[in-house]
């Protein structure tokens, strides 16, 4: 028991290792929110550094930074950058090319480009970025199709899922009893079929099982990978959750039967005036349901990551031994809650998608009140 | 952070706390009346709590 506790606390303190390297580094990077009040005292400068580090973990980046050593050297690897300029066409390079000269300017096919806050802008040879009054850059933005950290994580997760479930499916031809890792996933798959899909969708559940299974394991794996040390936070990125919610929305609309549309636009059993009033409300409800799915997953995951990392950063705020021992224990408890939330959010997304599919496929079983 | 933002965030947390507290109380009462339905009640409670918390987190992010 003690050995396990030590192992888990050691695992958690690998988070603080990356913080240690960063804190020993130099002046914090000045960016748009720091322009509001310049950090004056030492504590405020550290707070700004910690906030910048947390933001950097949450947002997507063009290179995979593991840590920064005391001498300021970055350890990590750079990822391919692919973008499209309307004037020149496609450009591709490694992101380390953006750090070769001190301006961060890359020259490709005659034009100059610069990476400013993880967005690619077209500039001149000296890398000037013109900013408007909200400190947003006004240079021309390129269409960015790079393999960023998030895209890399999604590709890895996709390949992992193909491997696991592909070999599971092939093994079922030989025997019905699963072996190895399939023993872990088979109860989950059966749970999704029997508790989520069948009660909510009804007799036509088989059409939707592909999507429900994929979405459940995709979100589950991405959530868990985001929590591991040196993990990449993907579900805390609103673009990814938006894509999943849009998929659910599209599948709901395109596989709905006529009953569903009738219920939105001309619901039976109401007086005509009420029906006309209810039409805009139902249309808004049509869009709000996937929007709530998106916000729920994004906000839960982001808030969880921020809380865990802020608690660890508090150690560097207090700077004494008692804090260094007490905070990892507190973080451990919150971390367990985060693992529960990872499973729960995957389950809730899948279950609500199943409920929406079920609502789209309801048969007409109301009895009108006959006078 | 300005004052209205702070007050707004506090109100959101109060709302979420009261909501999840009521859900938990109803679930516990149901479990006390019928101990054999423990699993179903727990599942329903977690689902309802996740829905309420989703709203709360979204509002916290917006403030």
Written account of the structure:
With 371 residues, chain A is an alpha+beta fold. Chain A has two domains: 80-146, no CATH class; 151-360, no CATH class. Chain A is built from nine helices and nine strands. Chain A has helices at residues 2-23, 42-58, 149-174, 182-201, 206-227, 238-254, 258-265, 272-318, 321-360, and strands at 63-68, 74-78, 80-85, 89-94, 105-108, 111-116, 119-123, 140-141, 143-144. In chain A, helix 1 crosses helix 8 (272-318) and helix 8 packs antiparallel against helix 9. Chain A is globular, with a radius of gyration of 25 Å. Chain B has 63 residues and is mostly helical. Chain B contains two helices and no strands. In chain B, helix 1 (3-33) packs antiparallel against helix 2. The model of chain B has no long low-confidence stretch (mean pLDDT 87). Chains A and B meet through helix 8 and helix 9 of A and helix 2 of B.
List the helices and strands and how they pair.
The complex is a heterodimer of chains A (371) and B (63).
Chain A (H helix, E strand, L loop, with lengths): L1 H22 L18 H17 L4 E6 L5 E5 L1 E6 L3 E6 L10 E4 L2 E6 L2 E5 L16 E2 L1 E2 L4 H26 L7 H20 L4 H22 L10 H17 L3 H8 L6 H47 L2 H40 L11
Antiparallel strand pairs in A: 1-2, 3-4, 3-9, 5-6, 6-7, 7-8
Helix pairs in contact in A: 1-8, 1-9, 2-8, 3-5, 4-5, 4-9, 5-9, 6-8, 6-9, 8-9
Chain B lengths: L2 H31 L4 H25 L1
């Amino acid at each position: 028991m003690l050995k396990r506790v030590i192992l888990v606390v050691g695992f958690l303190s690998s988070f603080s290792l990356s913080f240690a390297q960063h804190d020993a580094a130099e002046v914090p990077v000045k960016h748009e929110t720091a322009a509001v009040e310049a950090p004056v005292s030492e504590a405020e400068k550290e707070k700004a550094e910690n906030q910048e580090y947390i933001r950097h973990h949450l947002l997507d980046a063009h290179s995979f930074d593991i840590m920064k050593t005391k001498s300021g050297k970055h350890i990590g690897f750079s990822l391919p950058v692919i973008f499209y300029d309307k004037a020149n066409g496609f450009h591709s390079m490694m992101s380390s090319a953006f750090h070769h000269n001190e301006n961060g300017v890359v020259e490709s096919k005659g034009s100059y480009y610069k990476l400013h806050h993880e967005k690619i802008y077209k500039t001149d040879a000296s890398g000037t970025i013109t900013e408007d009054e909200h400190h947003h850059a006004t240079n021309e933005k390129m269409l960015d199709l790079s393999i960023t950290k998030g895209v890399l994580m999604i590709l890895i997760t996709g390949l992992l899922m193909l491997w696991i479930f592909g070999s599971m499916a092939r093994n079922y031809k030989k025997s019905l009893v699963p072996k190895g890792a399939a023993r872990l996933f088979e109860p989950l798959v059966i749970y999704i079929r029997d508790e989520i899909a069948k009660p909510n969708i009804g007799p036509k559940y088989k059409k939707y099982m592909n999507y429900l299974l994929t979405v459940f394991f995709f979100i589950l794996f991405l959530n868990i990978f985001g929590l591991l040390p040196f993990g990449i936070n993907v579900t805390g990125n609103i673009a990814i959750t938006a894509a999943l919610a849009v998929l659910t929305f599209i599948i709901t609309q395109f596989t709905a039967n006529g009953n569903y549309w009738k219920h939105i636009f001309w619901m039976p059993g109401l007086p005509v005036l009420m029906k006309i009033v209810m039409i805009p409300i139902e249309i808004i409800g049509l869009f709000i349901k996937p929007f709530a799915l998106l916000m729920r997953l994004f906000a839960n995951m982001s808030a969880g990551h921020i809380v865990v990392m802020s608690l660890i950063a508090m150690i560097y705020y207090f700077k004494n031994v008692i804090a260094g021992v007490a905070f990892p224990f507190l973080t451990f408890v919150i971390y367990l809650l985060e693992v529960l939330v990872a499973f729960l959010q995957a389950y809730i997304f899948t279950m609500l998608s199943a409920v929406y599919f079920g609502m789209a496929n309801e048969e007409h079983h109301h009895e009108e009140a006959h006078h | 952070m300005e004052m209205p933002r702070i007050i707004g965030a506090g109100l959101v947390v109060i709302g979420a706390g009261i909501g999840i507290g009521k859900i938990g109380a109803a679930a516990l009462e149901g479990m006390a009346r019928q101990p054999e339905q423990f699993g179903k009640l727990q599942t329903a409670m977690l689902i309802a709590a996740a829905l309420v918390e989703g709203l709360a987190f979204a509002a916290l992010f917006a403030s």
